[in-house]
UniProtKB/TrEMBL annotation:
Residues 1-233 form the ABC transporter domain. This is Molybdenum ABC transporter ATP-binding protein. InterPro entries: AAA+_ATPase, ABC_transporter-like_ATP-bd, ABC_transporter-like_CS, Mo/tungstate-bd_C_term_dom, ModC_ABC_ATP-bd, Molybdenum_import_ModC, Mop_domain, P-loop_NTPase. GO terms for molecular function: ABC-type transporter activity; ATP binding; ATP hydrolysis activity; molybdate ion transmembrane transporter activity. It comes from the Bacteria. GO terms for cellular component: membrane. Residues 292-358 form the Mop domain. Keywords: ATP-binding, Cell inner membrane, Cell membrane, Membrane, Molybdenum, Nucleotide-binding, Translocase, Transport. NCBIfam families: modC_ABC. SMART domains: AAA (SM00382). The gene is modC.
Length: 361
């Protein structure tokens, strides 16, 4: 199942002109506030009628302005989860879940209901009312209600924005399970690069109402040309890794394209495949294998590009098998080291520089 959208719309002085395809999995709409992310989602949901464009899920057209097609909201078979859960306060969790199917006039089988409840870990909450739920629990119930409407597309508009860091850490593993389990496209709006790195399979970066970059998550986040839209301080790459050991000193060992990576206590089972986001500003480069350093992680690769910004920095992209690492260093350091494309290089990463939130399943 795939989803295609093209939208042109003007609101006051802001002009939106975007087009992209969203395959199965999580397509993250990423960008700063005011770039048009929520406008896109609202147009897809039927809450806003754009000036021109279309949206299609496989062979079903949600709207096509040129053809005069506009499906009403209740016929679009979409699940929409907002920043705030918007649960019915007078209903129990179980009644809130049932409402999703009832609103779409669909029968909810026990097997379907049980699968969603298990997926989101809300079995112990069924008899509670929303007032007795934490923020993370409310959002999981809201996602469950949307899933039980049997949608063809799931829309998540910054579902973690209103949560504190502890609640975000609580719900992210469930969103990862949803990504891997769902057989429908998921459009996920966020301005958090850490969330995008953990959850997305595809990334669409919006800047000034236009698509600045779109593609597979790892390719977009490690692209130096996308740094201006992503933000220099947040720039970094995502490596695929496998958890191979928990050591007695509290460190966990993962294998990556460039070698072993030691990180503080990763809470996961041995053998699980993971994603690790490494910020460019946390990477130090060396021409030779370093010795006598406190940093434990040294990954070997080859320089494939260097992008000089307007300031004193240079973004170095390093190939590591079929993946990439980004390093943000000063122009002075790049010149002093005589760095050129094709040079073999060692990327040095402090274990404690990788935050727990940057390691996901």
């Amino acid at each position: 199942m795939s989803f295609s959208v093209s939208i042109r719309h003007r609101m006051g002085g802001f002009s939106l002109d975007v087009a992209f395809d969203a395959p199965k999995g999580v397509t993250a709409l990423f960008g700063r506030s005011g770039t048009g992310k929520t406008t896109v989602v609202n147009a897809v949901a039927g809450l806003l009628k754009p000036d021109a464009g279309y949206a299609r899920i496989d062979d079903v057209t949600l709207f096509d302005q040129a053809a005069g097609i506009w499906l009403p909201v209740h016929k679009r078979r979409l699940g929409y989860v907002f920043q705030d859960a918007r649960l019915f306060p007078h209903m129990t969790v179980e009644e809130n879940l049932a409402y999703g199917a009832k609103a779409q006039r669909r029968d909810m089988s026990k097997a379907q209901k049980d699968r969603v409840i298990d997926l989101l870990g809300i079995g112990d909450l069924l008899a509670r009312r929303p007032a007795r739920l934490s923020g993370g629990e409310k959002q999981r119930v809201a996602i469950g209600r949307a899933l039980l409407a049997d949608p063809k597309l799931l829309l998540l508009d910054e579902p973690l924005a209103a949560l504190d860091e502890a609640r975000k850490a609580e719900i992210l593993p469930f969103l990862e399970r949803l990504r891997d389990d769902a057989q429908i496209p998921i459009l996920y709006v966020s301005h958090s690069i850490a969330e995008v790195a953990r959850l997305a399979t595809t990334v669409v970066v919006l800047e000034g109402g236009r698509v600045a970059r779109a593609g597979a998550m790892a390719d977009v986040l490690s692209d130096p040309d996308a740094v201006s839209a992503l933000g220099v301080r947040d720039a970094g790459a995502v490596l695929a890794a496998k958890l191979v050991a928990h050591h007695a000193d509290g460190l966990s060992e993962l294998t990556t394209c460039g070698g072993a990576l030691l990180l503080p206590g990763v809470q996961a089972e041995i053998g699980i495949h993971m994603r690790v986001r490494i910020r460019a500003q946390d990477v130090i480069l060396s021409r030779s294998a370093p010795q006598g350093l406190s940093a434990l992680n040294v990954l070997k690769g080859k320089i494939v590009s260097m992008r000089q910004g307007a300031g004193p920095g240079v973004m170095v992209r390093i190939a590591c098998a079929d993946e990439h690492i980004l390093a943000r260093i000063t122009r002075r350091s790049a010149v002093a080291m005589g760095l050129q494309n094709g040079d073999e290089i060692f990327a040095i990463i402090k274990s404690v520089s990788v935050a727990q939130g940057d390691v996901g399943g």
